[in-house]
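Hi U.,

Before I forget, here's the chain from the pilot set. I'm dumping it here mostly so it's searchable later in email.
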Amino acid sequence: MLTTVARFMGKINSQFRLPVVPLLLIGILATHPIFYSCGDKAIGADGTVIAEFDWNGKQRITLEEMMQEISELPEYKQRQYQDKEGLETYMLLMAESRLILSLARDQQLNEDPEILKKVQDYLHELMVKRITTQEVDDKLSLSEGDYIEYYEAHKEEYVRPAQVRLSCITVLNKERADEAFAQIKEGKGIIEVAQEFSDRGELVGPGANPASPGDTDYISRDSFPTGTEPFLDAAFGAEIGELHDAVVEVEVQGQKYFMIFRKDEARDEYQKPFEEEDVRKSVVRKVEREKRQQLMDAWVRQLRERAEVKTYVDRIPEAQSEEEPAAEEETEEPAAEEQPEE
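Structure:
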C-alpha cells in the first residue's frame, strides 16, 4: 500500500525499515477525536478504527496499522508525522491509497501482464540483492592493516604535485595584453588591471575567476592542456614576487592566448599521509571495493563450477557491420530435384 502512495502522491517511501514509534505516542494518539469513527471510538479485533469507506464492502484502517507503517519510513519522513496534523495527513494518505487500489483491482490491474512482469522483475532484483548481501557483503572483513598496506603499495596516487599560485591576466587580444603589460611595468597593480579586464568581460583562462580576478589559486603542471607549456615553464621557473618580464603567448587548439603574470606563492611536491581525512576515505573506499569484487568473483566462480556451466561462444552470430549490406535473399525457385518431398 505504501508503495502505491509513494508513486501516486509523492509522499511516502517504504524502502527502509526503522524502529517502531514509541508505544506511548500510540496511547496519546488514541485519545484524539480525529481517530474516532462518527465520533465513537471503534475498537475491533484488528485494532482501533481511524478511517473507513465503502467500496465492495466496508474497508477499515486501524491506528495500529498506521503507526506500523510510519515506523517503517525513513527517520526523516517519520518526523513529518510526529504531531497531530502530520498524523491526520498520513491517515488521509492511507485512505486515499487504499481507495485507489480498490479502483485498480476493479479494473483487474492486478492481473495486467505488464504490471506482473515489473513485479516479477523487481522481485528477482530484491532476491539477487539479498543473496549477494548474504554471500558477499556480510563476509567482507577488513582491518586497519589492510588499509595501510594498500596505501603503502599505492603511495604515488596520494602525492600532491608541485604547485604555484599566480596573479595572472589572460586575454585573447595581443594589443590589449601589450597595453596592460606596459601599465603594470609603469607601476599599476596587476590585480587592479585584472579587475578592469574582468569588469569588461575580457578575462579568459587562468585568473578569470570573477570572484577574484587575477588569482589563479594553486595550479600544477597538469592543470592545463597541451600548448600551455611555455606559460607553465615560465611560471614554475619564475622568482616569487616578480612580474614575468614579457607577455607569454600560447596556442591551444588553434586559439592564441596572451598572458601576463606575477608569481606569488609556490609549494613543493607533497606526499599526503594516510591519516589525512581525504586520503583515508579514498583508501577505505578502494580497498573495500577491490575486496568485495574479489569475493564476488570467487563466489560466482564457485556457483559456475557447482552448476557445471557451459557456454557456446561459437553459436553466437558475429555482429553485422553497418557498412556491409545484408546479403540478398535468393529469389529463384529451387530446382525441381531439390524440391522437398510431399
